[in-house]
């Protein structure tokens, strides 16, 4: 039977391609990919979900699983990093340079800044951290439209409902309707990384092989093509 | 109690009540109208109307929210027109949350009211007509009072649904504390974070209490109205 | 003041073709179950659209198939008393009664107080319909129809659901209604005593067509109507005048053929009234009977003899200017050598003229 | 084979205290609307739990308040014919009829064919209840009750909703039922002619208690029962035997006081039967009447005179071993000098003994 | 058509139909039971039962899914017991999706059936009892056939709801293709991919068609059953 992969929804396109390539290259049956929010997946894993590999968008949930002893020792690895970008809706003419104290509130012109939930969803948490370190959070805190996931925030900007939004660079890359105004300095927020790990209960060689594929050159190439960065080090 | 809930949660509770209340109140009149048309009307497109009303029940809420966003968003055809014509903005406002909750609660409401209308004896309506009441007057003075128990049941069902609505609301109007952050959004937020189950369940308990209170009240009201209607 | 009905319709297996005229007073629609009575009333009320024909009330066209006229019920201004009362369960008796008035054009119909007095329902005003007896419900329904200031009252078997005692309670109200308000009434019933007591005009329906129509006295006293009426209920209706109230509790009536004694009735001497004498209650005698208990012995002339399939015959009699019906066996008819022109005595027990069968008017 | 009822109950404003015994045959529960008839039947059926008392059927206790016994309806094995038929709308006539049989213990009740023949419903078996006439519905309801192999039949005004013609259609079936099956029947009615025709025992209810009870002939022919029965319907019930069918369509009956002629009835000579003679249909004469149309002239002796408030009197008569009732005016009673012991002739028109009032048995 | 939908989408459609069908079929009997108890029962805890039944309507689906996961998950109290005792695993199986859909559809079903039961004339049930039928036999031979239109309406409403159920399902049994990925989950997955609205809307159209067909069929069936029940 194919092994199961639980992955953060934001990795769907990249992982779909990687899985196909992995299967084609190794002759294995392709893994069964399930995408949902990282929190839902993590909880399901804690309830014994039949996943051999977990790819999270969220370090906190991976930490929780690790603390519970659910991941196969030594298999945790960051497979990708991400960048946070400021995007603009179609037809938004303004330009903006991201930097300390930059005039985000002015650029919004009284309208909304689309983000993922700033207390709950990783993209939102990172975004808030970035705005806080740049000193502009307080000026826009009450102008934020929080979506339940980063793709929904992206959609708000793509549809023009919000003129500006903060999403991952990967999302911006995949959505032709939005324009990237700028990239948040990596040091303005905690490092964005996508940890993956083989899960102890369903640990199988093919799952380990797929994780290795993802961290290997071929996997990196695919992830890079979808806008993810490469982690400097693997654990 | 105020120590038990933070100010943000109080805000979410108050907003949920406000949104659900208005969603219920505002969708009652069209609900009655549509239910009446479905129960008594013999027009082309009746099946279509019936299907349309049921759509929000059939579709995943996220899709409903997405369709609402496309239609009633500021760039959407209806949303733009509403803003230009009436200055009415739904997107990112609590008014939009009301719209989303209304739409989601609508099929349940219509179902309950339709069943009530189908149970009204047309002979009483005929009697009213022979006494000089026009069709609208008959409806207002005979049909409407007689379906009161059904109306109450439908309204409370709608209210309960509105209290619990999440997917369509957050997709359409996002989560803006004080504006569109209803109880379910707050609950969802807590559920995303490891270890925050306790506050989430606290909010769940609150919405359960609110909705059950509404349900219980409705059973009492409906029974009283049914007695009234039975002419005792 | 009249209603003209001339309609055709198809319903179930029945082909209706009904034409009649209802002048003032009470017009009774009479006929067996399924003969089309309710259908006609519904057509007049506008609750049913006939296939063809016309309905006209006081000169106004309510319905005309050819001209495409079909006034909706609420614009016909008629008061329909349904067989099953149909009071609004969610309203008090008072609100039921006043329901129609708010839709009616201002006019000088009877007031709430008058109607309450007429129908004896003043004490019920604040009750709910569920707390009324069957007879009370029906009276409220009549009052509700009346207070809508209708131009005609339609009553579909308003008393059928009630037992004899309740009926006796309501009939006097209907008589007062007929006499005190000028509103014409179309009255459906399959009870001959009711029709005999109330109706000024009778329309006999049979299988969707009008079998006979005319003034009540004439239609009901006609031996030819026996088939529709049934043997048990066949009888004559005589106009009479209250002559005298006797001390022993009898009332003496005068009619063209002499005097009639019956148990005391409530009307003052001089009041015109109407009595019904059932054919089966009349005994014919050749010699003048003596020393027997029947107080009413009427000298008559045989006008007509009609035999049916059974052992009985219907004998038409002239008594003064009025007509009587007697039902006798063939054997008796032969034994008495009855034939048109023969003179006989009719014995009618005063007590067999029941109160139910007496109406004022 | 008997039912014993002795219960107390409170319902609405009514205090019921009812005790009676129903032997075999038909026991009629008779009384004004609201007197408690349906309440009693429901108590027997187990649809209502009385406050106190006992109900016993064929020696088995169905209900005993003190002993805490209250058999649920489905274990009482009785057939209840409701006033409103209550056929199962989702089943064909056939399935309605056979519904009860599958729950009944095996036994030798009537077969479906027998019941269909008895009630004349064989042609309806595949129809739905909605497609039946009122009379047909009621007959199916009777058949359904019968086929459940009940130990007693309860019939609550089974004919009240029907017009006279329909009633006449069903009564013979009930008579056949009474005579051909041994099942006792508790029969509720406020129609005196029905009770007179059918009942072997009569229980007269008044305001929740038993006003009179006894064999039908005795209760109905008793001048004291007039108050409950009403003047119009008071009369005697006579047992008689079919003697002869005449060619002219008359049937001659023999009874203890002589001969009676009435329109042909369907029974063979020798059949015991029962006729009812309404008090208001009897004329009393001192001399023997001659040359008149009433075929029945009976020699009688006055036994009793009862006056009421009105102008009439009820005269009890002995005729052979049987009793007759006559209603005359006070004036006539005085004129004829009626007194107990006096001999008079009673004139009864043969045709005034209506077919409805003739029963076999 | 097969060119129009990819194999994964066909799989999602088939799974959705399977899950909704079983959810409907399996929740009908308890639905009838609970509806009967609520309509006719006079027992303590009636209000509580009523509230409990309505909970899934009141709660955000995600919460319902969370509670299901905690209860029926493999490490949950009931889930563990089911697995140990019967070897029945619900979590992350299509059977779990059936459970989630059943729970979500249950209040709608019970409502519709309860209204139908309340409309049955108790006089007919009494008549059956006098003919010798015990309470259960009365129910089976009289009540049940008479509520057929209500059953159909309730079942189809439940089916429609099950077809659209998303939040509770994905939270409880995840989004495993071929196992638990129903149409709504598939739609959600597409909506996570920028620019994939077209395939998402294609799936939306399919679920709308399926649910509307079920609705229309139910109207016809219910009308036919109503006629049957009216004795015509
Ligand atoms: N809705 C209907 N559909 C088909 N046939 C009908 C309908 N209503 C009445 N009929 C038929 O039309 C005929 C006339 O019915 P109508 O109700 O006018 O009779 P009626 O004289 O009022 O009888 P009743 O004295 O029983 O009230 C009957 O044969 C009846 O069966
Ligand atoms: N459910 C009830 N609640 C209160 N009072 C009732 C109820 N049912 C009947 N009654 C009252 O109990 C009394 C007896 O009723 P019951 O139905 O036995 O009368 P009945 O003799 O059958 O009358 P009818 O001839 O009208 O059927 C009546 O006064 C009635 O008003
Ligand atoms: O992958 Mo996420 O959890 O939608 O940011
Ligand atoms: Mg009629
Ligand atoms: Mg009764």
TrEMBL record, chains B, E:
Domain of life: Bacteria
Location(s) in or outside the cell: Cell inner membrane; Cell membrane
Keywords per UniProt: Cell inner membrane, Cell membrane, Membrane, Molybdenum, Transmembrane, Transmembrane helix, Transport
PROSITE patterns: ABC_TM1 (PS50928)
Residue intervals passing through the bilayer: 20-39, 51-72, 92-117, 138-160, 200-222
GO cellular component annotations of the record: plasma membrane
Name of the protein in question: Molybdenum transport system permease
From TrEMBL, chains C, D:
Any Pfam family matching the protein: ABC_tran
Signal peptide extent: none
Residue ranges occupied by any Mop domain in the UniProt entry: 291-357
InterPro entries: AAA+_ATPase, ABC_transporter-like_ATP-bd, ABC_transporter-like_CS, Mo/tungstate-bd_C_term_dom, ModC_ABC_ATP-bd, Molybdenum_import_ModC, Mop_domain, P-loop_NTPase
Keywords, in A-Z order: ATP-binding, Cell inner membrane, Cell membrane, Membrane, Molybdenum, Nucleotide-binding, Translocase, Transport
Record lineage: Bacteria, Pseudomonadati, Pseudomonadota, Alphaproteobacteria, Rhodobacterales
Gene Ontology molecular function: ABC-type transporter activity; ATP binding; ATP hydrolysis activity; molybdate ion transmembrane transporter activity
Positions of the ABC transporter domain: 2-232
Protein origin, superkingdom: Bacteria
Protein name: Molybdenum ABC transporter ATP-binding protein
Species in which this protein is naturally found: Pukyongiella litopenaei
GO cellular component: membrane
């Amino acid at each position: 039977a194919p092994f199961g992969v639980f992955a953060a929804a934001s990795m769907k396109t990249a992982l779909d391609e990687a899985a196909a390539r992995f299967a084609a290259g190794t002759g294995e049956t392709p893994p069964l990919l399930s995408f949902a929010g990282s929190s839902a997946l993590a909880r399901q894993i804690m309830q014994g979900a039949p996943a051999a590999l977990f790819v999270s968008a969220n370090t906190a949930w991976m930490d929780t699983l690790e603390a519970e002893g659910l991941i196969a020792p030594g298999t945790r690895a960051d497979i990708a990093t991400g960048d946070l970008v400021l995007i603009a809706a179609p037809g938004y003419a303004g330009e903006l340079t991201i930097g300390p104290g930059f005039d985000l509130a002015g650029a919004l012109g009284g309208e909304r800044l689309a983000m993922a939930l700033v207390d709950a969803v990783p993209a939102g948490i990172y975004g808030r951290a970035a705005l806080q370190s740049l000193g502009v959070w307080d000026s826009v805190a009450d102008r934020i439209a929080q979506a339940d996931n980063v793709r929904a925030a992206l959609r708000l900007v793509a549809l023009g409902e919000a003129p500006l939004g903060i999403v991952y660079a990967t999302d911006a890359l995949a959505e032709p309707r939005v324009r990237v105004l700028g990239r948040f300095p990596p040091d303005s927020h905690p490092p964005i990384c996508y940890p993956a790990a083989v899960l102890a209960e369903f640990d199988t060689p093919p799952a380990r092989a797929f994780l290795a594929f993802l961290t290997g050159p071929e996997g990196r190439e695919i992830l890079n093509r979808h806008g993810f960065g490469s982690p400097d080090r693997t654990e | 109690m105020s120590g038990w809930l933070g100010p943000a949660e109080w805000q979410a509770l108050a907003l949920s009540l406000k949104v659900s209340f208005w969603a219920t109140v505002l969708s009652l009149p069209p609900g009655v109208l549509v239910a009446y048309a479905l129960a008594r009307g013999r027009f082309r497109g009746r099946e279509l109307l019936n299907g349309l009303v049921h759509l929000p029940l059939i579709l995943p809420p996220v899709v409903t929210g997405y369709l609402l966003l496309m239609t009633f968003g500021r760039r959407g055809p209806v949303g733009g027109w509403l803003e230009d014509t009436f200055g009415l903005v739904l997107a990112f406002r609590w008014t939009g949350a009301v719209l989303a909750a209304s739409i989601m609660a609508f099929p349940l409401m219509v179902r309950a009211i339709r069943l009530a209308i189908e149970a009204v004896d047309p002979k009483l309506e005929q009697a009213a007509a022979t006494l000089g009441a026009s069709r609208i007057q008959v409806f207002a003075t005979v049909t409407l009072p007689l379906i009161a128990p059904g109306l109450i049941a439908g309204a409370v069902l709608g209210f309960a649904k509105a209290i619990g609505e999440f997917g369509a609301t957050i997709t359409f109007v996002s989560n803006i504390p004080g504006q569109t952050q209803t109880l379910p959004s707050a609950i969802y937020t807590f559920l995303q974070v490891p270890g925050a189950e306790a506050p989430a369940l606290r909010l769940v308990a609150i919405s359960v209490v609110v909705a059950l209170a509404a349900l219980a009240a409705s059973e009492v009201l409906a029974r009283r109205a049914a007695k009234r209607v039975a002419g005792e | 003041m009249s209603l003209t009905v001339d309609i055709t319709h198809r319903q179930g297996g029945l082909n209706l073709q009904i034409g009649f005229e209802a002048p003032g007073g009470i017009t009774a629609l009479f006929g067996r179950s399924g003969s089309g009575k309710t259908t006609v009333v519904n057509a007049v009320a506008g609750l049913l659209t006939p296939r063809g024909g016309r309905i006209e009330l006081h000169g106004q066209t309510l319905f005309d198939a050819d001209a495409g006229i079909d006034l909706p019920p609420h614009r016909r201004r008629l008061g329909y008393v349904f067989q099953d009362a149909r009071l609004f369960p969610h309203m008090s008796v008072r609100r039921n009664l006043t329901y129609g008035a708010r839709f009616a054009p201002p006019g000088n119909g009877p007031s709430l107080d008058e109607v309450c007095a007429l129908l004896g329902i003043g004490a019920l005003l604040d009750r709910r319909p569920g707390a009324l007896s069957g007879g009370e419900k029906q009276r409220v329904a009549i009052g509700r129809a009346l207070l809508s200031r209708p131009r005609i009252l339609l009553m579909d078997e308003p008393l059928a659901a009630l037992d004899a005692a309740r009926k006796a309670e309501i009939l006097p109200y209907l008589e007062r209604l007929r006499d005190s308000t000028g509103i014409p009434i179309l009255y459906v019933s399959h009870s001959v005593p009711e029709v005999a007591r109330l109706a000024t005009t009778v329309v006999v329906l049979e299988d969707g067509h009008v079998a006979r129509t005319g003034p009540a006295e004439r239609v009901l006293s006609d031996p030819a109507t026996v088939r529709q009426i049934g043997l048990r209920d066949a009888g004559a209706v005589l106009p009479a005048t209250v002559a005298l109230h006797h001390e022993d509790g009898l009332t003496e009536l005068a009619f063209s053929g002499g005097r009639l004694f019956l148990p005391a009735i409530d009307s003052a001497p001089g009041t015109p009234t109407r009595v019904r004498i059932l054919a089966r209650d009349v005994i014919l005698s050749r010699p003048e009977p003596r020393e027997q208990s029947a107080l009413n012995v009427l000298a008559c002339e045989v006008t007509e003899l009609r035999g049916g399939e059974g052992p009985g015959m219907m004998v038409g009699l002239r008594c003064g200017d009025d007509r009587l019906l007697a039902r006798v066996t063939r054997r008796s008819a032969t034994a008495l050598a009855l034939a048109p022109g023969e003179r006989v005595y009719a014995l009618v027990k005063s007590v067999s003229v029941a109160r139910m069968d007496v109406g004022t008017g």
